[in-house]
Design brief:
heterodimer, A: 240 residues, mainly beta, Protocatechuate 3,4-Dioxygenase, subunit A, 5-stranded mixed beta sheet, 4-stranded antiparallel beta sheet, globular, B: 185 residues, 9-stranded mixed beta sheet, 10 strands, oxidoreductase (chain A), dioxygenase (chain A), plasmid (chain A), Protocatechuate 3,4-dioxygenase subunit beta (chain A), Intradiol_dOase_C (chain A)
Chain lengths: 240, 185
């Protein structure tokens, strides 16, 4: 990791709580004991949060962004090959270049490599399910992977997570850090999912990727586009 | 300013992220670890450790703590300690081996920016670690000053000089009695 620091000038726009889920979302049971009960305390942005770590291209290995190759042992991973691509932008519509994305997901059967995952579905010996890449100068990223399967979880009777890919991003600052999930269009499980529904109405749709025939590669993989918007800087510096 | 786009909503990391974020156990190379300080790094070498607990005081094992800090010279710069990431173990315990940061901005006490991610947290939480042996600087710190006096203690890591070295204890309580102060920043 390279710990070089981005330009530290200017405050970032606040977290937009009309877009983000509240900490307490009782239909998602795990939030009940894990949500801060006291209001967040406003903090004037200072250098230690306006800056952030930088992960360089040399931090990555050549296959890190190809999940169909980076877990191979003795053959191809099973499932529907997909390309997931998009842009990382800030709220001002500017690309976020050279920033790290990390993704992780279940295999085509809905099973994670994670040692705690007890779902009675097969592990794929040729699929690890995690990848990384760095956006280019225009903020573009691209992963090749396998479409993840839905899986059951213990939240409530007959609870199934919609197919999803977890995304983790840094952006230019400790404040622009974001972890989110990308979902697939037309998934019938979405309206039933309390994690998806924890996001305010009107904002949820931003988590659904778009199928794209232009990204789809003939004889190879279906294509999905998913753009991600991180916090941007204020138009004028805030005086505290 | 040009037209604004809407922030992409946050989502939980879920329970199954360790193989991606802290993948050493899976035989993979991590991008970031909890050992920020190489032996030759300038500054006082310290360990920061604590337990992350929920509203019932139960340890949280599917949690990740990330930190970002200046080096001993106060600079967020190449070669400084910088960024660290540590998953909690079955007892909810995490630790970082690092150096004590210097003052990175006039008027601010030495501190470390901290974020907490876990299953059951739909957005990560921001907090800030201060040092118990910096009482004078803490008393002047503008961020601590913005925190109700009876809750400031939750932001102070307690120094202990142990046979193995200096350890600062910083427990993180997500909810309830002694709840850690989390910031909107």
């Amino acid at each position: 990791m390279d710990t070089a620091v981005h330009d530290a000038a200017g405050d970032f726009r606040p977290r937009d709580w009309a877009q983000h889920p509240p900490y307490l979302s009782p239909d998602y049971k795990s939030t009940v004991l894990r949500s801060p009960s006291k209001p967040l305390i406003p903090m004037k942005q200072c250098l230690s949060v306006r800056t952030g770590p930088v992960f360089g291209h040399d931090s990555l290995a050549p296959l890190d962004s190809d999940l169909t190759k980076n877990g191979r042992v003795n053959g191809e991973p099973v499932g529907e090959r997909i390309v997931v691509t998009g842009r990382v932008l800030d709220e001002n519509g500017r690309p976020v270049p050279h920033t790290l994305l990390e993704i992780w997901q279940a295999n085509a059967c809905g099973r994670y490599v994670h040692r705690w995952d007890q779902h009675d579905a097969p592990l794929d010996p040729n699929f690890f399910g995690a990848g990384r890449c760095i956006t280019d100068a225009e903020g573009r990223y691209r992963f090749t992977t396998i479409k993840p399967g839905a899986y059951p979880w213990g939240n409530h009777h007959n609870a199934w997570r919609p197919a999803h890919i977890h995304f983790s991003l840094f952006g230019p600052s400790f404040l622009t850090r974001l972890v989110t999930q990308m979902y697939f269009p037309g998934d019938p499980l979405l309206p039933l999912d309390p994690i998806y529904n924890g996001v305010p109405e009107g904002a949820r749709e931003l988590l659904i990727s778009r199928f794209s025939i232009d990204v789809t590669e003939p004889l190879w993989a279906l294509g999905y586009e998913f753009d991600i918007v991180l916090r941007g800087r204020q138009a004028t510096p805030m005086e505290g | 300013m040009s037209q604004t786009l809407k922030q992409t909503p946050s989502q939980t990391v879920g329970p199954y992220f360790a193989y991606a974020w802290t993948p050493e156990l899976y035989g993979r190379r991590p991008l970031a670890t909890n050992r920020l300080a190489t032996r030759n790094l300038a500054g006082e070498h310290i360990r920061i450790e604590g337990v992350v607990t929920d509203g019932e005081g139960a340890p949280i094992r599917d949690c990740v703590v990330e930190i970002w800090q200046a080096g001993a010279d106060g600079l967020h710069a190449p070669g400084a300690a910088g960024f660290g990431r540590c998953g909690t173990n079955d007892e909810g315990h995490y630790f970082f081996d690092t150096v004590k940061p210097g003052v990175c901005e006039p008027g601010h006490a030495p501190h470390i920016a901290v974020t907490v991610f876990a299953r059951g947290m739909l957005s990560h939480a921001f907090t800030r670690l201060h040092f118990s042996d910096e009482a004078a600087a803490n008393a002047e710190d503008p961020v601590l000053a913005g925190v109700p006096a009876d809750r400031r203690d939750t932001l102070i890591a307690r120094r202990a000089e142990l046979p193995g070295g200096v350890v600062y204890r910083f427990d993180i309580r997500l909810q309830g009695e002694g709840e850690t102060v989390f910031f909107d920043c």
